[in-house]
């Protein structure tokens, strides 16, 4: 994580608004191609939570811990409690909070200069765990409470596979590119490609968080959830093809320069 830190002037009591302003200056620019919820909603929620955490002296790892607590509490409820309107709201709210705190930990790290490889590792491990456990917990709950025909349980199972492979491929590709001296950067300035952000909504983790609001209406929930899984599969396959091509070209360029 970036080690940049900015501090208020000595002897001045900083307001919450002032902390928010410093966060805006210290954080990374949002990638223009990021899905709409992550870009326009979650990042801003994360900024507010990061300001709250910073003013209470919480470390980036502590913020990651709060994110994990919210997320995994929601995940644990899915196989333990029968689907209902109340469960859907609680699960969705906890997942949204967990996602916002996931954004906040990096913002706190950049604001305080306390980012570290260990902190980045912890953040990725929490992400990797939630990606596979959320759909599996959902599948167990659907089976236990006999919500859908059993054949449809393949959908969350497929989601667990596609999400895990996509996340691993993204991290592995980035590490291999770094090892070759190439650092990936996402464009953050210029005109915003609104259409690309909107088209990314089905694969946005925020969309997955919100679809649980439909949990009390199984048909509507499963239509929305199945669409998310289908989009994830398409993106995972397309990304894998693109990453493989990038690494092949990188290898060819290195061989040509030798």
Question: How would you describe this structure to a colleague?
Answer:
- The chain is mainly alpha-helical and 258 residues long.
- The chain has one domain (16-179, 193-257): Four Helix Bundle (Hemerythrin (Met), subunit A) (Up-down Bundle), CATH 1.20.120.
- It is built from nine helices and no strands.
- It has helices spanning 16-26, 36-55, 60-80, 85-112, 117-144, 154-179, 194-199, 205-211, 218-257.
- α5 (117-144) packs antiparallel against α6.
- Residues 1-5 have low confidence and may be disordered.
Main sheet, how many strands, which sense, barrel?
Answer: none
User: Going by CATH, what is the homologous superfamily?
Assistant: CDP-alcohol phosphotransferase transmembrane (TM) domain
Pattern of helices and strands: HHHHHHHHH
Radius of gyration: 20 Å
Given the helix and strand composition, which structural class is it? Answer: mainly alpha
CATH class value: Mainly Alpha
Summed over residues and divided by their number, the pLDDT gives a mean of 88
Total beta strand runs:
0
* Architecture (CATH level 2) name: Up-down Bundle
Number of helices: 9
Strand proportion, as a percent range, falls in under 5%
Percent of residues in helices: over 70%
- CATH topology description: Four Helix Bundle (Hemerythrin (Met), subunit A)
Q: Looking at the structure, what is the overall shape?
A: globular
Low-confidence stretches: 1-5
The total domain count is 1
Distance between the termini: 32 Å
Protein name: CDP-alcohol phosphatidyltransferase family protein
Keywords: Membrane, Transferase, Transmembrane, Transmembrane helix
Pfam families: CDP-OH_P_transf
InterPro entries: CDP-OH_P_trans, CDP-OH_PTrfase_TM_dom, CDP_ALCOHOL_P_TRANSF_CS
